[in-house]
Amino acid sequence: MWLKPEEVLLKNALKLWVTEKSSDYFVLQRRRGYGEDSGGLTGLLVGTLDTVLDSTAKVAPFRILHQTPDSQVYWSIACGASLEEISQHWDWLQQNIIRTLSVFDSGEDITSFVQGKIRGLIAEEGTSAGDEEDPERFREAVLRFEHLFGLPQREKLVTYFSCSYWRGRVPHQGWIYLSTNFLCFYSYMLGNEVKLVYPWDEVSRLERTSSVLLAESIRVCVRGEDHYFSMLLRLQQTYLIMQQLAEYAIVRFFDKETFNAEHPLANPLHIMQKALEIHARNQSFRAFFRLPQEENLCEVYESFLWVPFSHVNTLGKICVSENYLCFASQDGSQCHLIIPLWEVFSVELPDRGSRALSVCLRGKRALRFSEVRDFERLAATIRRKCGTAGSPQHYISNPDEEGVMVGQSQAVSTEALMNVFHPHDAENLDPKMLKERMKEQSWEIHFAEYGRGSGMFCTKKTRDLIVRGVPETLRGELWMLFSGAVHDMTSHPGYYGRILEECMGSSSLACDEIERDLHRSLPEHPAFQSDTGISALRRVLTAYAHRNPKIGYCQAMNILTSVLLLYAKEEEAFWLLVAVCERMLPDYFNRRIIGALVDQAVFEELIREHLTQLTEHMTDLSFFSSVSLSWFLTLFISVLPIESAVNVVDCFFYDGIKAILQLGLAVLDYNMDSLLCCTDDAEAVTVLNRFFDSVTNKDSPLPATVQQASAAANDKSIQKVDISDLIKEAYEKYGSIRTEEVENMRKRNKLYVIQTLEDTTKQNVLRVVAQDVKFSAAHLDELYMLFKRQHFVSCYWSVGSPALQNHDPSLPYLDQYQLDQSQFSSLFALLQPWTTHTHVRSLAQSAFRLLDANGDGLVNFKEFICGLDILYNRSFTEKLKFLFKLHLQPGTQEYSAEDGVIRKCPERGRAKVDLQEYLKQWQEDLQRREENIKDLPRINQVQFIGFTKTLYGVFHGTEEEESLYRAVTRVTSLLLRMEEVGRKLQESSLQKIPQSTPTSTDQPETSPTLPTSPETKTITEGEGDQPESLASPQETAPSHTDITPTSTSRPSTPTSSPTGTSSPVLDTPTDTPSSPSSVRDGDWSFSFEQILASLLNEPSVVRFFERAVDTDSLIAHACKNQLKVAH
């Protein structure tokens, strides 16, 4: 066990210890009296001393000391009761610590680091896996976590570990904290503090790695920067939890997957380590046995299964779910089977001595399990679940049910199209047909030995039969079995018929795309030259689009489905499509084809590992990713003749994506010499296309009218390649690739692929936006990350947040991330360039309405950054114009589409980005940017009051606050006098007209006093305190004092304002009762030109708005506080 480091002054005190091993920094010692010299006189004396001097605790016979070459002081750091125990600690030190210590310059630093590391290991050994085992210790860790990182209390800490973080070549010993949304690390050693907080949704790489300096570590890449964590006592456990949390972030924020209330990951506020482990275990269980998504692993038992065909007991594990009893061997025999519990009719306990039980199945079959540790509990579980499992008749064809399906308004095909257009001829004695019958007989023998249907034993022999090729008559049945689609169909009886009725007659974008592609699906095959095949294909694709609108319809689905319909009934083809799209090829069939890109990245890794010669020749392997995309999307159907491609599909349904990866490697290996001679990509593509043209299936029994072999395959000068030989070679050379390894590579590369797509989106957005703003490239990059992070921050601590829908990767780049008003207001408050915060909320609301030009309640990055650019980088006139517009009535801003300040970009919507149109529009905006000031509407009196209050709020807290207040007061007074003079001149001219209205002559003269509203009451207080210079023109404007401040002196309190109110509150446009287009008689209004001309005469105001904004500090402030202000 590890010990708290304690000083030992004499290494060989009283000669009680013997050195067994030593290094520069550590010594392993054995106490005399133990081991080889235990029988000597010294051993007896030592044993006596241990007994007499310490009767309560016997000294451990082995220990490890730490020392430095330049010191005589030793520190005890570990002890053990046996050589094996202490050797484990010694080996761990050699592998994880020794090479690290060489980076330190002094012995004191080395000792300090070792002591910190050992204390961390001791604390970690006492750390529980969750808060259930040791709640007090975990509660203390939660308090440290909240104190150190300042995250909201709703952020759930999952677990924490002691580790070392590498910054350069120097390790920092500390603690890594793993929470639901963040990876955090804290270290404080030798006066140096290291604090890291990274969200999981920004992690692009997460993998275990090793190097000369680091024996084993975890590499985390965030925003292009690598971080290494090592010296973890439980490195694999830590890595798995980090992987699960990163995957959970992807599922929530990018896939937008939701969980039912009973799911352990349903609520992000209550995520626990145990819940993550349960979720990962259930996923692995369903993926291995190809079970429906509703199945969860309930119980696991280790046992032996009697295998009748080999007459041996096979060691493995029994896995029990809600409706299935599964077994998988562990001895390398690759034997597994799946038993639906509704097939079980009794459970017996024949031999309690061997802890055995027999499971009797329908059809006079029985399975015998032995050496089951808790066999009685297993028997009780199976008996209980047998009564609740689904009915066995779900998958049995019911003639009455089929007749109903045919009688519906949409007739459903109950025969595979191959049986309709190419029926099996039992009397045909063609050599190919004879070989086909031999295959059928081989499978019949296999069924007799290993069983048929769901309860069939799957072994190496099964795979050998698959590699040789599946008979045409059995292909549909075996596809259903190996893919797990049979379990889905059994669990959902009548589902396909119901969904067809629901989507009948519906119209959608997916339906239009399906109609467009129907006649492009295997057009050479007779089945799809008739209405029978086309109609069946339409029904299956439409039904799936209705079932899964998230995917809808994607190109390549039509090709795959058409092949499925050739060998499976229509309903079976539907469930096969479900199995492929939702389980076997996840995320393949969407607009971004993330799943295919992930598997291409896996393919590149395998090429580097297995085809090193090709890797050395072609340093950039992205060519193979582009050329192999169709291989993955269509399972080679698009590049191979149909008679050869179905053999590939056979292997895919049995081994999953592993079979496609193996075949891809075999294709490149077969063409290695030709590819090494290629000088460019086009030549390599030609080589591969020529190879695929030469692939044939010499054993195919299909007639020539059905086969799609190219003309090149019939050319005797070209060497032909048989598909069976190619597949066999793929399994022989690359069959060692394990499915678990492929799945781990998928998880690892999915992070990278998603972040690469996110980076591509960012670069495209910044390239478009950079043309219209004056921010530097670095500032734009940081502001984009703040904008994007604001979207995720608002979703971190909520279940199914509606804000998640504001991110839609299917939209054009500019609109993929958008903020609603709440998200926008929080970010605007952090980035607004003025010191005051008294008016920020209302100002942000007005800014949001102005920037949201199309009124959809969302603002994209371009709209946001254009508004921010005005406040940061534009001239005094542009800034004033922006503030002026904020106070205009909503619905009167048609000018905003013409004045060139805030424009809606042509990229809005789902259409393709038209860059030429954008550039043309941008050029037109530049030409008329300055000449449209006159087109701005006039601002009425209530809006003008809000405008002046906004100015007061902007100036509040600045060094020149008093002079700025005076300037606004002078401008306000001047504008009122100008308006009064203008009204008098207008009225005098109207009196000279004989036809003047009675209102203009009979009514008393109306002064421009403000209406008695709550807003104006606060402004009219204290008018006797005005300066003399402002009170002098009362003869011409007796009521101008109603808008002037109450005092010209600087406010005594930070929150006071010149109007006498506690804080200047902005009147948002929604509060204005009138519009500028219809000013009431007696009201006054101002044009933007008047306000601009008046303010230009106030140098202090101009200087304030022309002052350079410290963009770096504002961005740094926003980055630091973005999480703190999260609600």
From TrEMBL:
Pfam families per the UniProt record, alphabetical: GRAM, RabGAP-TBC
Domain Rab-GAP TBC: 469-656
GO BP annotations listed: glomerular filtration
Domain of life: Eukaryota
Compositionally biased residues, Low complexity: 1004-1016, 1044-1079
Keyword terms: Calcium, Cytoplasm, GTPase activation, Metal-binding, Repeat
MF annotations from Gene Ontology: calcium ion binding; GTPase activator activity
Biased composition (Polar residues): 987-1003, 1029-1043
UniProt-annotated stretches for the region Disordered: 985-1082
InterPro entries cross-referenced by the UniProt entry: EF-hand-dom_pair, EF_Hand_1_Ca_BS, EF_hand_dom, GRAM, PH-like_dom_sf, Rab-GAP-TBC_dom, Rab-GAP_TBC_sf, TBC1D8B_PH-GRAM2
Protein name from the UniProt record: TBC1 domain family member 8B
Keyword Metal-binding part of the UniProt annotation: yes
Keyword Cytoplasm appears in the UniProt entry: yes
Organism: Carassius auratus
The EF-hand domain, residue ranges: 839-874
Location(s) in or outside the cell: Cytoplasm, Cytosol
GO CC field: cytosol
